[in-house]
Automatic annotation (TrEMBL):
GO terms for cellular component: bacterial nucleoid; cytoplasm; replisome. Residues 25-192 form the Helicase ATP-binding domain. The chain holds residues 1 to 413 of 683 of the full protein. Its EC number is 5.6.2.4. It comes from Halovulum dunhuangense. This is DNA helicase RecQ. It catalyses: Couples ATP hydrolysis with the unwinding of duplex DNA by translocating in the 3'-5' direction. Its cofactor is Zn(2+); Mg(2+).
């Protein structure tokens, strides 16, 4: 087995581990089943890529997005690692190349789209190559009550049972319920769980009651001219009206939603990735595949649908670790809309109940008079000792501070 630390610099070009990575990597290299919950941008990929390289054999990675898999495969190949992806976008020549690398025992990482797992032939293929490990990225997709449920993820547990290999799972989004669901669906018994570091101290958290959202958005964006940002909207129409309003105010801006042609969407993603100072007004369709480190703000022009969605969406800002801002506007109409969307969905009742719970948790966060960061972290099971002192509720509590000071004076007098 190669030394992980040496590979960290020789293959990935990093001189140190990010918080949490080293412990996870060594547990994985020791062959243990692991569930790791790390924040967005925390560096989860490395936690399965590095053990894959450090050990013999091939690691199968299941990941929900073709674009993400392609990016990772490209980056790995550039670093000289033998990696390939089998997805619906893989052409025959590429597949042949992957199979022969597999047969020659050269391939280190095989990315597979979840829909590939249930396909005839996949089990036989995997039995033949005997993967060292199955790594499940974005593991919350296995949760039926979660917001990113992918039915094909359920196939992973069945495959693992038949192959009997090590399994590891990674996600940024997991409340206690989701964690329990991941464990029962993916693992033969309770894995080693790494849960830490949800806090993104460089993200400023601000919520504001919505009165005139267009004006509120313009004020915010005008004060941050030239910065790259995402403005999340609840509807396609709204992405277009807000993009137009920002454009008229002289900002470089684009709308993005799932109703656009695939080409237009890709074009928007590429522009956003490459240009500085572009603002994308988007529905939630935008973001999962975006790896732009210098997004300086995320505005929610409308209330997101759950606290998980909120956390994941704001998590796209400030991945470079530099200060970044978030602003969430919320009003009574938003709450009604979100409630109606849940009620009108065709989901079973338990699911609706869970969705209402996640929306309520977000409303609780929006209305908390206490430290907002603590409230957010508490939802994910973290209990920081002190208020952060840097979120909007901490900054804007003059009455409380004054009252405390006055009380202190009164007592010390
Ligand atoms: P996640 O999947 O947890 O959201 P990624 O695996 O995509 O995060 O990593 C986020 C970014 O951090 C990537 O650009 C990656 O190259 C970088 N990164 C990961 N580990 C390290 C490290 N130890 N040192 C420096 N950069 C790192
Ligand atoms: Mg990731």
């Amino acid at each position: 087995m190669s030394e992980p630390r040496a590979l960290l610099s020789s293959v990935f070009g990093f001189d140190s581990f990010r918080p949490g990575q080293e412990e996870i990597v060594s547990a994985v290299c020791a062959g243990r089943d692991v569930l790791a919950i790390m924040p967005t941008g925390g560096g989860k990929s490395l936690c399965y890529q590095l053990p894959a390289l450090a050990r013999e054999g091939v690691t199968v990675v299941v990941s929900p997005l073709i674009a993400l898999m392609r990016d990772q495969v490209r980056a790995l190949r550039e670093a000289g690692v033998s990696a390939g992806a089998l997805t619906s976008a893989t052409d025959e020549a590429e597949a042949e190349e992957i199979f022969s690398a597999l047969d020659a025992g050269r391939l280190k990482l095989l990315y597979m789209a979840p829909e590939r797992l249930a396909r005839a032939g996949t089990e036989a293929l995997l039995r033949r190559v005997r993967p060292t490990m199955i790594a499940v990225d974005e593991a919350h997709c296995v949760s039926q009550w979660g917001h990113d449920f992918r039915p094909d993820y359920l196939e992973i547990g069945r495959l693992r049972e038949r192959l009997g290999c090590q399994v590891t799972a990674f996600t940024a989004t997991a409340d206690a319920e989701t964690r329990a669901e991941i464990v029962t669906r993916l693992f033969p018994e309770t894995p080693e769980v790494f849960l830490r570091g949800f806090d993104r101290p460089n993200l400023d958290l601000v919520f504001r009651p919505k009165d005139n959202p267009r004006a509120q958005l313009l004020d915010f964006v005008n004060a941050r001219r030239g910065q790259s940002g995402i403005v999340y909207c609840a509807s396609r129409a709204r992405t277009e009206t807000l993009a137009r309003a920002l454009g008229e105010a002289g900002h470089s801006t684009l709308a993005y939603h799932a109703g656009m042609e695939a080409d237009a969407r890709r074009h928007a993603e590429t522009r956003f990735q490459r240009e500085d100072g572009l603002i994308v007004c988007a529905t939630v369709a935008f973001g999962m595949g975006i790896d732009k480190p210098d997004i300086r703000y995320v505005v929610h022009a409308d209330l997101p649908k759950s606290i998980e969605a909120y956390y994941q969406e704001i998590g796209r800002a400030g991945r470079d670790g530099l200060p970044a801002e978030t602003l969430t506007l919320f009003g009574a109409d938003d709450i009604r809309l979100r409630r109606a969307q849940i009620d009108e969905s065709l989901a079973p009742d338990e699911r609706k109940e869970a969705d209402h719970g996640r929306l309520n948790a977000l409303l609780g966060l929006a209305e908390t008079p206490h430290c907002r960061r603590r409230a957010l972290l508490a939802y994910f099971g973290e209990t920081p000792e002190d208020d952060c002192g840097g979120c909007d509720t901490c900054r804007e509590r003059p009455e409380l501070h004054d009252a405390t000071e006055a009380a202190q004076k009164a007592f010390s007098a």
